[in-house]
């Protein structure tokens, strides 16, 4: 399978592009949605609209209907998974030729937030029954998709998924030729500036500096990680000051920006983290995605998702 990392584009049948599941003794119970805010009616309507679109994509994955993704994905689509990043070009063919067999895919806990004019983030939980190369696929998972308006239609412009902390199942062997295929950098100067903000955020996390996150994240901030599942801003800020991680070193590489408009930017990159959390070794490589929104003259993180590398 050439450039197999591109299958991450909602191809949940190719779960070898998701994150490694947490250790078996992980006792974290924060795998469910921790957002206690009551969603507004427009947000509920948006979540319903986008979740229906997403369900159509999962049905196409299950039936190996690769042609569906020709119209479903934005031309600038970026997918992120265990082997890095990939784009739209080869996805339809790979969906049609997927070696996985999925009996069912169900969705729940859909939430949506409008990041900017014609740009929305959908996060939801997926439960699957299927196998790849004789192994049951990890389930449940958390998934995130950015949708952008194209005329009167929504198209998927970014997707990433990671097994929930309580996921069961195994990953198949990595496909031959799997590698990172980074997108073209949209703005080198902006990439440099946002990379400095990312570095500051990671350093604040390592030092358990919750105030940095209070001062620098957007009001609707959301994060998804392999150990915490989905967290809203308040939960994440609390976690930042109380987490049980001891970090020795952090570095980042391969930063690329993808613009979803003048005021919404995705940064994808590879993080190398040395340390432990709850006594368990960090995965080392983490393929990360951060979305920034512009508030006045200031760029603020609105979303983070990390997928441990294979």
Write a structural description.
With 310 residues, the chain is α+β, with helices and mostly antiparallel strands. The chain folds into two domains: 4-168, Nuclear Transport Factor 2, Chain: A (Roll); 188-308, Nuclear Transport Factor 2, Chain: A (Roll). Helices cover 22% and strands 43% of the residues. The protein is built from six helices and 14 strands. The strands form two sheets. Strands 1, 2, 3, 4, 5, 6 and 7 form a seven-stranded mixed sheet that branches. Strands 8, 9, 10, 11, 12, 13 and 14 form a seven-stranded mixed sheet that branches. Strand 4 (119-132) and strand 5 (135-136) form a beta hairpin.
Query: Biggest β-sheet, characterized?
Result: 7 strands, mixed
The domain tally reads 2
The total of helices stands at 6
Helical amount: 10-25%
CATH topology of the largest domain: Nuclear Transport Factor 2, Chain: A
Which radius of gyration do the C-alpha atoms yield? 18 Å
The string of secondary-structure elements, in order, is HHEEHEEEEEHHEEHEEEEE
- The CATH architecture name of the largest domain reads Roll
Dominant shape:
globular
In oligomeric terms, what are we looking at?
single chain
Count the beta strands: 14
What is the CATH first-level class name of the largest domain? Alpha Beta
Spell out the key features of this protein.
310 residues, alpha+beta, Nuclear Transport Factor 2, Chain: A, 2 domains, seven-stranded mixed sheet, 6 helices, 22% helix
Question: Care to give the gist of this entry?
Answer:
With 310 residues, this protein is of the alpha+beta class. Helix content is 22%, strand content 43%.
